[in-house]
Automatic annotation (TrEMBL):
Keywords: Chloroplast, Kinase, Membrane, Plastid, Transferase, Transit peptide, Transmembrane, Transmembrane helix. InterPro entries: Phytol/farnesol_kinase. This is phytol kinase. It comes from the Eukaryota. It comes from Genlisea aurea. Belongs to the polyprenol kinase family. It is found in: Plastid, Chloroplast membrane. Pathway: Cofactor biosynthesis; tocopherol biosynthesis. It is an enzyme of class 2 (transferase).
Length: 241
């Protein structure tokens, strides 16, 4: 019945909000105890929060309004980031966990773009479209892993961008591709999407190449990776799927 559907979707939203809060709290604790360094903690939250949100879509009902209730999760984070980024409120833990240098205005860039992409993919594509699944996988897993690997093993730089390395780009392609395939298989098994797998693997590989090339470009000062990577993935996926 209608009340059961509403209860399911509201419960799912509450569960995800609680899970997201727990995830950030765990990494804040690990960082404060110096078990995990701050930069690594921030990137792991970047990777895991988006992917866990994406993986949780099936717990919502099949109603047409389910995607909008799901989008409330990144919308609430959007409002938190906006208020703190504008210094209208001051959440020291939030600022410390998602900013590079501990400045409130940093929340209005990469972190804000990240949740906006989550909102748009949830509403625009949802779980019956490969486009949103692939794009979020590339942004969360691909871009996130590229930064972690690049910082540690990125001694050999890409010729046209001294801020990017071959190690980071290769890891972005591999993890973005593998996580995208894994997520598509997950939704395929659950019956939300129908795929012809040989063609799908080829398409996802091409999307991964495009997103990796875009991420490697020297556009850091003009275009954030949390915009360029999902946007290029969305456009390429729309053309291929």
């Amino acid at each position: 019945g209608f009340s059961g559907i509403v209860l399911q979707d509201v419960g799912a939203t509450g569960l995800i909000v609680g899970g997201a809060y727990a995830l950030v709290s765990v990494f804040d604790l690990l960082t404060s105890r110096k078990i995990v360094e701050k930069a690594l903690s921030r990137k792991l939250v970047h990777i895991l929060s988006g992917l866990l949100f994406l993986a949780a879509w099936p717990i919502f009902s099949t109603s047409t309004g389910a995607r909008y209730l799901a989008s409330l999760v990144p919308t609430m984070n959007f409002l938190r980031l906006l208020l703190n980024g504008l210094s209208l409120t001051k959440d020291e833990a939030l600022i410390a966990s998602v900013s590079r240098e501990g400045k409130p205005e940093e929340l209005l860039r990469g972190p804000l773009y990240y949740v906006v992409v989550l909102m748009l993919c949830t509403i625009s594509f949802w779980r019956d479209s490969p486009v949103g699944i692939i794009s979020l996988s590339m942004m969360c897993a691909g871009d996130g892993i590229a930064d972690i690997v690049g910082r540690r093993f990125g001694n050999v730089k890409i010729p046209y961008n001294a801020d990017k390395s071959w190690a980071g780009s290769v890891s972005m392609f591999l993890f973005g591709f593998l996580v995208s395939i894994g997520m598509l298989y997950y939704y395929w098994i659950l019956g939300y999407i129908e795929l012809e797998w040989i063609q799908t693997i080829e398409n996802v590989a091409l999307v991964s190449v495009v997103a990796t090339v875009v991420e490697s470009l020297p556009t850091k000062s003009t275009l954030d990776d949390n915009i360029s990577v999902p946007l290029s993935s969305i456009i390429t996926s729309l053309l291929l799927f």
